[in-house]
Structures are given as C-alpha cells and as structure tokens.
Amino acid sequence: MEGPRRRSLPWGARAVLSGAVVAAGACALPVARGNVPWGAFGLLAGLYALCEWPARCPFLLGRVTVPTGSGSFFPVLLAAAFLLPPAAAALAAVPGALLGPVEQPPRSIRRLWRAARLALAVGAAAEVHQRLGGRAALGGPALAPDFPYALLPAGAAALVFCAVLAALDGLILWTAERLPARTAWRGLFPRSLAPYCVHGLAGLMMAVLWRSPYGPPAALLVLLPMYISCWVFAQYHRERAAHQATIRALVQAVDIKDTYTRGHSERVGLASVLIARELGMDESRLEVLRFAGILHDVGKLGVPTRLLRKDGPLTPQERAVIELHPEYGHEMVRGIGFLGEARAAILHHHERLDGSGYPYGLAGPQIPEFARVVAVADAFDAMTSTRSYSRARPVGAAVEELERCAGRQFDPAMVRALARALDRHGWHPAVTADEPDRGGATGSGNVPACDAAPAGHA
C-alpha cells in the first residue's frame, strides 16, 4: 500500500507524511551545490516519468496498460542510484512519482507520499552503492565492468531500497490505518525482497550498458522485457478483476432473491479461508476456496422465490425442490473455468460424513475437501447470524454444536481447525439482520445443526 485510504488523515499520519517530505527535500538538497551530471540526470528522470505517463495520458488511456504500484519501472530508478550522486538520484524519482496515476483519493496527498518515499529509498540506495565503490565497478567506455564485484554494491543498494520502502509503508499503515505495529510491518520486507532484487539486477544491466561504448540507447533495451512483464502483469490483474466482477454479480443476484441470507455468502467465504489457513492449505488454493464459500448457494437462483421466503414448514415436495439447489448451482458455474475445485464444493456442500446428505449421499472421504470445509463454514455462519427465523447463537455455542455433530455430519478435522482459528483470531464479520422476526419462517430456527432442515443453514 502506498498511502492512507482515508480523506481525513490522523495526526500521526500527517506527521509521518510531513517528516518524509522534509527528509526527502533534505536528501535532494545537495543538488544545489553542483557536480551533477545533468545530462544523465535529465535522461533518467525523464525516462522514469515517461514510463509512468501512459496510464494518465488521455491519448494513450486504454491503449497502453500500466498497473499502478506494480514497480515495473523501478529498474530505471535503481539505474539512477547506480549512475548518479545520491542527491540527484533522489530527485530523479520525483517527476515520475508525481506524474503517475493514483486510483483512490486523496490523490494529491498520495502522490506527495509516493514521491517522498521513492526519493528517500533511491537516495539511500545510491548512498550505499557509492560508499561500496559501486560506480567504479560499473566500468566505462574504455574500461570493462568489474564483475562479479559489481554485484555486491548493486545487491546492497537493492536491499536498502527494499528496506526503506517496506519501513515507510509499514509506518503509514500503522499511523493512517491504525493497524497494530506487528500487523502493519508483517511480511512487507520478505514479500518485496525477491522482486526488488530482480529490479536491482535489471538496473545494474542498464547502468553497465549506459557506461559502455554503446551509451544510453543500449541501456533502453533492458526496458523492453520489463515493459512486457508489466503488460503481462496488467493482463493478469484485468482478468482477476473480471473474475471478481463475475462472482460479485452472482452473489448479488442470490442476495436479492433470498433476502433472509444477505451477507451470508461473504461470511461463509471468510470462515472457509480461516479453516483452510489453519489446516495449512496451499496459498494458491485459498482464493478458489473463498469463491466456493461465496458461491455455495448460487443454485438458489433456480429455486422458486416463494419457497425461499415461505412462512411455515415446507412440504416434502417443496423440500425436495430446495434440495436441488446444489445441482442447479453446479450447472450454473460448470463453464466458469477459473473456479476449479470450487465447482465440486458447490455441488457437494450438503453431503454429510455419514452418507445421509444430498444430492448424492456421499460419505467420508468421498466428499471433496472443499465441500467439507464449506459445510462447516456454512453451518457455523447460519448459527451465529441473526435471521428472520432464528436468533444468533454465541460463537462458543455454535462451535460446541459443530463438535457435537462432528463425525456424523461434519468432518472433525474441519471443525477443530475452525475452533482453533476462532480462538486465535476471533469472529468479527459484519452482522446482518435483514428483516424483523415474522414468526415461523422457513428453516430450522434454533434446532441443533445436526437436525437442521436443508433450508435451515443455507
């Protein structure tokens, strides 16, 4: 995250922003003393600004895709850190940082923050590179670069660049978002280290070619693969946004049709991910599992609305119609390729461990893993949510009920994982109570989860 989300900044975030701007100004101030290779400075500063410009240019908007905050052009900044004095390198980051696109307001504050943090990071990287003799190791028109030594100051500079950005990002999260300190900085540096080391290598290649007999034009060749990677990254995010939009549209359709369970889908997705993390499930599967939790009841779109909203008990024939919703849902999402394992969870989330569930009466390990996770998350949220036909149970009471039903209806491993996750993280989703209690409505009310009617924990 590059800056605060709120329009009104807390005083701590204002102090951090002001301090960063003052520190960046002090870092760039020695430029006024001269001894700056203005030609190289102008080319590098202009090149970085040109890389950031297409996303805001009205003529190129929509034709050239540049994802914000991707860092795809950081090699230009690191090349500036390797080629320029620290003050000039810090200043070279400012025009592009101010020119780059910002998606969320307040835009002027975010641009200022981005410019300050990049100037400090590039200035610190240039200082480390210079002190380790990195510039001499780059060689020149008549001197070969000093490899492998040149890798040492370049690697140290990339490390410092990464550390400064991670420290500043954590600081703004702590002050602006008011996250706990451990949460604000957790994982920022390790997640960024590998990408920034790659940026450092690309920046070193640019700097070596810049100082070679071929000059700056040869250095520009390094940007071609970086721009291609930027385009691929943008395409990935565009596809991911389309997936999210598909999921959101389906969930909204279900919420409109079945107002009793509004918000239920998102909470089931959240609880499913809690269980999966506790089980140590691979990170690559978590998003698909979240989709499974969110879309588990999408088949309700094929169930008559009068049955979903019926007051009083369901007849056996009506119950049989409602029990078709997993198959309806599976048919609806059959052609959505990115859902993967989620499709099986949508079809089988009402199966029971003892084989008494539906639609196919699967038992034990025959039930897909995702379906066993979603079944526990589904029942847990149903018991802890206030609806028109039932009052919310305390979290502890819901967990006890799940444990009582473990082995018959629910997978005991999934129930234990949820209990451990709740002990560790708690349960604080937004509580929805869409309509006042109207008396005997469809569902199970406060009967135990093991004995609930099929519509009861939908």
From TrEMBL:
<feature type="transmembrane region" description="Helical">
    <location>
        <begin position="73"/>
        <end position="98"/>
    </location>
</feature>
<keyword id="KW-0812">Transmembrane</keyword>
<keyword id="KW-1133">Transmembrane helix</keyword>
<dbReference type="InterPro" id="IPR006674">
    <property type="entry name" value="HD_domain"/>
</dbReference>
<keyword id="KW-0378">Hydrolase</keyword>
<dbReference type="GO" id="GO:0016787">
    <property type="term" value="F:hydrolase activity"/>
</dbReference>
<feature type="transmembrane region" description="Helical">
    <location>
        <begin position="216"/>
        <end position="234"/>
    </location>
</feature>
<dbReference type="InterPro" id="IPR037522">
    <property type="entry name" value="HD_GYP_dom"/>
</dbReference>
<dbReference type="Pfam" id="PF13487">
    <property type="entry name" value="HD_5"/>
</dbReference>
<dbReference type="InterPro" id="IPR003607">
    <property type="entry name" value="HD/PDEase_dom"/>
</dbReference>
<feature type="transmembrane region" description="Helical">
    <location>
        <begin position="38"/>
        <end position="61"/>
    </location>
</feature>
<protein>
    <submittedName>
        <fullName>HD-GYP domain-containing protein</fullName>
        <ecNumber>3.1.4.-</ecNumber>
    </submittedName>
</protein>
<feature type="transmembrane region" description="Helical">
    <location>
        <begin position="150"/>
        <end position="172"/>
    </location>
</feature>
<feature type="transmembrane region" description="Helical">
    <location>
        <begin position="193"/>
        <end position="210"/>
    </location>
</feature>
<feature type="domain" description="HD-GYP">
    <location>
        <begin position="239"/>
        <end position="434"/>
    </location>
</feature>
<feature type="transmembrane region" description="Helical">
    <location>
        <begin position="12"/>
        <end position="32"/>
    </location>
</feature>
<dbReference type="InterPro" id="IPR006675">
    <property type="entry name" value="HDIG_dom"/>
</dbReference>
<keyword id="KW-0472">Membrane</keyword>
<dbReference type="InterPro" id="IPR052020">
    <property type="entry name" value="Cyclic_di-GMP/3'3'-cGAMP_PDE"/>
</dbReference>
<feature type="region of interest" description="Disordered">
    <location>
        <begin position="429"/>
        <end position="458"/>
    </location>
</feature>
<feature type="domain" description="HD">
    <location>
        <begin position="261"/>
        <end position="383"/>
    </location>
</feature>
